[in-house]
Amino acid sequence: MAGFRSLARQVRDPRGDLALRRYSLRKCLERFAPYGHRATWDHLCARHGIGPEDRAPDPVRLMRALDELEEARAVWLAYEAGFAERRRREKHAGLRRPGAFDDWHRRTWGGHGVARCTDPEVHPTEPLAEVLRRLIAALGSGPGSACPVCAGTGIEWRQERGEEPWAGPVCTGCGIAVPQPALTDRTLARARLPRHRRPAAAVAA
Fold it and tell me: Which one, 53, 85, 150, 198, has least CB within 10 Å?
């Protein structure tokens, strides 16, 4: 199975068939897709003017989409390297049992779905790397009461029952599934309330 770098080289190959280069970019998303496969593809298409079903897109647009994806991947890999080093130091110091933050991190190892968007057509408009930088900064600064990506306070609890059952807080503004370690207990409790019982400010956000 080809890795991300090998697939990226296929996308960049000017001698390659455009349909194959597009296919290789889609395959890259099986290795790294911050919003999940469908939402990340929708994001890249929207930002770089690629028709989602266009089998022979402008190669310049394909390259720009790949550039954005690669920059975001570099941001996340650097973060993961720092995380792994911290865990090694903690284990050396006798801290063997990971906390809730580490549980979340294990589920998103590799960066796939790290800023999962439950609706593939609703996602942040900023570059992927910028979104990940905001998310990483929030995770390093402690829990807050707003979305770490768009600063929106509309957080609601959603549940999916598909092939991959999932439940958690979602930002009603930018659409990402907010990592629970990035939110205060009070914010999480409010998100679980039925909509009609939430504070007015949160509902209006």
Answer: 53
